[in-house]
């Protein structure tokens, strides 16, 4: 039975003991010359299943372990997302009051604001995954970033669309080249660019590296989005929730907003985890197909 | 239905479409990969 071909974690210490000093004949016991540095003690034999020293996130580089973990976590994550989102939607659409100025359109806020937070928070996650990919060559970080960007592009598009649907009745326009809206539009193009770039290479690893560099460069846009409403004279109002003093919102509107944000956040996490899980399985299928093809070629050559 | 409620309904509808569509796509990819793994991986075949 072929063992599961698990890629050894890149930073795992070499298991072979350091080579004996060249001068010592193989059969004679190695007499270390006094000046020679003491050879490093051979790494202790690792008990099977025990992650190498400094396992940390590298434990999840093992596809089998990642699949077993997500198999247990995902049903709970989907369940929690549907539960919280169901409660949040009912609270936002039915039980929360209309705004004294904006009337019923304030109910768009319960979608628009969470999408904006996920668009920016998700991109921060993409930048962190890209950092892990470039520095530690973590194979799962590549896959997670690859599967995250289409979801990030979707929530950013929803943020722009719901903002436009809210702006039309409130501002009288679907769109304005306002600093906040324009920088979020740039964020959308960054998400789309990353999703396309990582898939543009025949060699997955090269695509992942190019995408990681783009993601890190694009992260400069996040503070621009956040503080655009303070730096520029914008049509879009400044922060209402994440303010230094206190949220400038009545609790009857603030609490359903928090529940909706939690619900959409859980759904976002479940979606990215489910896509990454599918990608790990698809990579495994490609490996098996390759091995099968090699065996088939080997058999044909012998005939 | 007033114009305000139309805009609210479309906003929430787009969110449901986006998240729902991607969830269905992820589930479909997962099922297809599981089927291929069962066919290709002897370990999976014995476990199934």
List keywords for this structure.
heterodimer, A: 303 residues, disordered N terminus, B: 48 residues, mainly alpha
Choose one word for the global shape of chain B.
rod-shaped
The class by helix and strand makeup of chain A works out as: mainly alpha
Uncertain segments of chain A are 1-47, 50-54
Q: What value does the Rg of chain A take, in angstroms?
A: 26 Å
Which two chains share the most extensive interface? A-B, 41 and 27 residues
Counting H and I runs of at least 4 residues, what is the number of helices of chain B? Answer: 2
| SSE arrangement of chain A, N to C | HHHHHHH
Q: How confident is the prediction overall: mean pLDDT of chain B?
A: 89
Ends distance of chain B? 53 Å
| Backbone structural class of chain B | mainly alpha
Give me the count of strands of chain A.
0
Percentage of residues in strands of chain B: under 5%
Uncertain spans of chain B, ≥5 residues at pLDDT below 50? none
User: Residue share in helices of chain B?
Assistant: over 70%
| Sheet with most strands of chain B | none
Overall average pLDDT of chain A: 82
Architecture overview:
The complex is a heterodimer of chains A (303) and B (48). Chain A has a domain at 87-239 and 253-303. Chain A has 7 helices and no strands. Chain A has helices spanning 63-95, 109-136, 139-171, 179-197, 204-218, 221-231, 251-302. In chain A, helix 1 runs antiparallel to helix 7 (251-302), helix 3 runs antiparallel to helix 4 and helix 4 runs antiparallel to helix 5 (204-218). Chain A is elongated and about 80 Å long. With 48 residues, chain B is an all-alpha fold. The relative contact order of chain B is 0.08. The radius of gyration of chain B is 19 Å and the shape is rod-shaped. The longest helix of chain B is centred in the middle third of the chain and has 38 residues, at 3-40. The termini of chain B are far apart. The A-B interface holds A 1-2, 4, 89, 93, 103-105, 107-108, 111-112, 115, 150-151, 154-155, 157-158, 161-162, 165-166, 168-169, 264, 267, 270-271, 274-275, 277-279, 281-282, 284-285, 288-289, 292 and B 2-5, 7-8, 10-12, 14-15, 18-19, 22-23, 26-27, 29-30, 33-34, 36-37, 40-43.
């Amino acid at each position: 039975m072929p063992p599961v071909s698990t890629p050894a974690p890149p930073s795992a210490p070499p298991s072979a003991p350091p080579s004996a000093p060249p001068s010592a004949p193989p059969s004679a016991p190695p007499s270390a010359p006094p000046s020679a540095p003491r050879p490093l003690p051979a790494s202790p034999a690792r008990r099977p299943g025990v992650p190498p020293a400094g396992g940390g996130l590298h434990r999840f580089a093992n596809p089998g372990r990642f699949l077993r973990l997500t198999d247990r976590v995902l049903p709970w994550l989907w369940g929690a997302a549907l539960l919280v989102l169901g409660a949040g939607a009912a609270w936002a659409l039915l039980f929360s009051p209309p705004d004294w100025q904006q009337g019923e359109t304030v109910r768009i806020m319960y979608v628009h604001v969470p999408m904006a937070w996920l668009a920016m928070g998700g991109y921060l996650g993409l930048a962190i995954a890209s950092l892990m990919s470039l520095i530690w060559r973590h194979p799962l970080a590549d896959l997670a970033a690859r599967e995250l960007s289409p979801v990030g592009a979707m929530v950013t598009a929803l943020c722009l669309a719901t903002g436009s649907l809210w702006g039309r009745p409130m501002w009288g326009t679907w769109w304005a080249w306002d600093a906040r809206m324009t920088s979020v539009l740039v964020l959308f193009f960054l998400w789309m660019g990353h999703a396309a770039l990582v898939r543009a290479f025949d060699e997955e690893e090269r695509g992942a590296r190019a995408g990681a560099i783009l993601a890190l460069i694009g992260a400069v846009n996040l503070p621009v989005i956040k503080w655009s409403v303070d730096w520029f004279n914008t049509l879009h109002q400044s922060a209402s929730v994440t303010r230094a003093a206190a949220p400038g919102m009545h609790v009857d509107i603030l609490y359903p907003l928090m529940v909706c944000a939690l619900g959409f956040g859980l759904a976002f996490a479940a979606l990215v985890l489910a896509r990454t899980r599918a990608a790990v399985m698809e990579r495994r299928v490609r490996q098996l197909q390759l091995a099968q093809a090699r065996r088939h070629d080997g058999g044909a050559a012998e005939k | 239905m007033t114009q305000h409620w139309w805009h609210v309904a479309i906003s929430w509808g787009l969110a449901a479409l986006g998240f729902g569509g991607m969830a269905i796509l992820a589930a479909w990819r997962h099922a297809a990969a599981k089927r291929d793994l069962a066919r290709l991986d002897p370990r999976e075949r014995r476990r199934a």
